[in-house]
Design brief:
The protein is mostly beta strands. It has a domain of 64 residues: 10 Kd Chaperonin, Protein Cpn10, Chain O. 0% of the residues lie in helices and 40% in strands. The protein is built from no helices and 8 strands. A 6-stranded antiparallel sheet has the order 6-7-1-4-5-8, with no helix packed on it. Strand 6 and strand 7 form a beta hairpin. 11% of the residues are buried.
Length: 98
């Protein structure tokens, strides 16, 4: 991986989801812009706030798909990641660096 690139593996989602009130929403339901979670597989040398094994939140429309050894991955820039979920992230830390 070069520069600020992050290689992620998209979490398998069944498509159906449940609302906060317990209502089942089918995969065919139209939704607005929805972000997706993925697990970090590799990072470039200039990535500062993300480590392998972290879960990251990103916009699925801003991505580049890659296939390695018959498995699909997504290649992102660090700046395109909206949030990081990891046990090492301090509570209340925003992670902003721009």
């Amino acid at each position: 991986m070069l520069a600020d690139r992050v290689l992620v593996s998209v979490d398998n989602e069944s498509g159906e989801r449940t609302s906060g009130g317990g209502i089942l929403i089918p995969a065919t339901a139209s939704v607005g812009k929805r972000l997706s979670w993925a697990s970090v597989v590799a990072t470039g040398g200039n990535v500062r706030h993300i480590e392998v094994g972290d879960r990251v939140l990103f916009d699925p429309e801003d991505r580049h798909e890659v296939e390695l050894q018959s498995k699909g991955y997504i290649l992102l820039r660090e700046k395109d990641i909206h949030a990081v979920a990891a046990p090492r992230v301090e509570s209340g830390s925003t992670g902003l660096y721009l």
